[in-house]
Design brief:
Number of strands of chain A: 0
Shape of chain A: globular
Structural class of chain A: mainly alpha
Largest sheet of chain B: none
Order of helices and strands of chain A: HHHHHHHH
Largest interface: A-B, 25 and 30 residues
CATH class of the domain at 1-84 in chain A: Mainly Alpha
Largest sheet of chain A: none
Oligomer: heterodimer
Number of helices of chain B: 11
Strand content of chain A: under 5%
Order of helices and strands of chain B: HHHHHHHHHHH
Radius of gyration of chain A: 20 Å
Strand content of chain B: under 5%
Number of domains of chain B: 1
Helix content of chain A: over 70%
């Protein structure tokens, strides 16, 4: 095994362990902390795959931004309420179904795009653009311009929707 | 191989020793400068002109009783200051002090700094929550809201210069500057400085710790070395913010006659002095004013800056 492989297994195992901790901690804040750690280990895996941009974005957007917002919400809820675990919300079957669907989707993507390729093949492709920052940038603004714009508009719509919902509640 | 590892270790030790020394003496510099601005002497007792004051402070903090409040969440209470300090110190790993002197060169250097710094703020939020005190909690909440608003402008204000420099690599950014980028990007420069003040929680934007409103905000309950960690992290962040300003806007180590690292330090300390000066000059903003400035003035201006930069680059 090369050193990259050794480190991959270490980081992958640690990220799985902390991902498990996220769902098993009873304290919501502790879950959030574990989530930060999970994102860090996933970023480490991205670095091993030579996808530095993805690693940085992972930490910036998820560990820094999303978890920060989650912490903000959790802290506004009173301590005891945040720690109450509600059993039997009737989500188990739906959750399992969604998780299965997601797994199939991800597995299919990995299978279709990576089958038969050596590790680091994608990084080599990215190098053609002069690094993966430039590569992702070039692809986003040429080949994938339409999906990118659609995603932006969707996010904008979600943002406007959230503001409208929150404002209606405040004014009543 | 061992040669490389030894060299890397040596670089790490040198950079961190110097960084920590600077951080310790920044507290002295700040007290002296503000003292003189307010027609006081500042620290004078320990050593000549108080030069040994940071060491005395450090020793005092080290031997102080470590108080952990009964109401606090112990593990998070210990974890938060560590997160703050670690996230502040590992940023020095990518700062190029000279053409060839840095711990490591990343092709996403600037993004690395922004992303790790955003995690560092988590330490403040967690500290506020874990203390189990309402003042700390308010400090933490303020810090969270401040972070979401000000990180956006901090990032956006760097996009204009990045479009001209054409890279996220800090070394390439400096090398791309024949003329310091401040000449082409004055608007981005001013917005960067304001956003940086918000990002490192300094007056006029030191709302998470506002002494007169929240006692000391997120670190009300912290004492001894844990308090010192927050303090060190704050000053380390001050250095980093000044270093980024130097690299992105003032062409880093470039300059005539003097060696590169000296230029870098001179430029960096101009910014450090500026941040201290601001603290001695401006009163604290009220919280709603602070948010209004951010979202209603700075966001449109910084977006306009990006658009104008893009158009000009297309035409020229």
């Amino acid at each position: 095994m090369g050193s990259a492989q050794v480190f991959f297994y270490i980081f992958a195992a640690l990220s799985l362990i902390f991902a498990l901790l996220v769902v098993t901690r009873r304290n919501a804040i502790h879950s959030a902390i574990c989530l930060i750690v999970t994102f860090f280990f996933m970023a480490a895996v991205f670095v091993i795959l030579k996808a530095e941009l993805l690693a940085a974005v992972q930490v910036l957007v998820y560990a820094g931004g999303v978890v920060g917002l989650m912490l903000y919400v959790i802290m506004l809820v009173k301590g005891e309420e945040a720690n109450q675990v509600k059993h039997n919300l009737g989500q188990k079957i739906i959750a399992a179904f969604v998780a299965l669907l997601l797994f199939i989707q991800l597995a299919a993507v990995v299978w279709v795009s990576l089958a038969g390729k050596k590790a680091g093949a994608l990084a080599a492709e990215a190098a053609k653009f002069g690094g993966n920052t430039e590569g992702i940038g070039a692809l986003l603004y040429t080949k994938y311009l339409l999906p990118f714009e659609v995603a932006s508009v969707l996010l904008l719509a979600a943002m406007v929707g959230a503001i409208v919902l929150a404002k209606n509640k405040l004014e009543r | 191989m061992w040669h490389d590892i030894g060299l890397a270790l040596l670089r790490i030790i040198v950079v961190f020793a110097v960084a920590l020394l600077f951080v310790a003496y920044l507290t002295y510099l700040e007290r002296k400068v503000i003292g003189h601005m307010q027609v006081r002497m500042g620290p004078m007792r320990v050593g000549p002109h108080g030069l040994l004051q940071p060491i005395a402070d450090g020793l005092k903090l080290f031997f102080k009783e470590d108080i952990v409040p009964y109401e606090s969440y112990k593990l998070t209470f210990y974890f938060a200051p560590l997160l703050c300090l670690v996230c502040a110190l590992i940023l020095f790993a990518v700062v190029p002090i000279d053409r060839n002197f840095m711990i490591t060169r990343l092709n996403i250097g600037l993004l690395y700094i922004l992303s790790i710094a955003s995690v560092g703020v988590m330490g403040i939020i967690l500290a506020g929550w874990a203390s189990g005190s309402k003042y700390s909690l308010l400090g933490g909440l303020r810090s969270a809201a401040q972070m979401f608003s000000y990180e956006i402008f901090l990032g956006f204000s760097l996009i204009g210069p990045l479009m001209i420099a054409g890279s996220l690599d800090l070394v390439k950014i400096v090398e791309a500057q024949k003329v310091p980028l401040i000449v082409y990007q004055p608007v981005a420069f001013v917005i960067y400085l304001i956003a940086a003040l918000g990002e490192i929680n300094r007056t006029p934007f030191d709302l998470p710790e506002a002494e007169s409103e929240l006692v000391a905000g997120f670190h009300t309950e912290y004492s001894g070395m844990k308090f010192a960690y927050f303090f060190l992290a704050e000053y380390a962040n001050l250095l980093i913010v000044s270093a980024i300003a130097t690299i992105v806007f003032l062409a880093g180590w470039k300059g005539p006659i003097l060696p590169g690292w000296m230029w870098f330090l001179i430029k960096m300390f101009i910014f450090v002095y500026f941040f201290i000066w601001v603290r001695a000059t401006f009163p604290r903003y009220r919280y709603d004013q602070f948010m209004r400035i951010g979202w209603k003035i700075m966001l449109p201006v910084v977006l306009a800056n990006i658009v104008v930069t893009g158009i000009v680059m297309m035409l020229v």
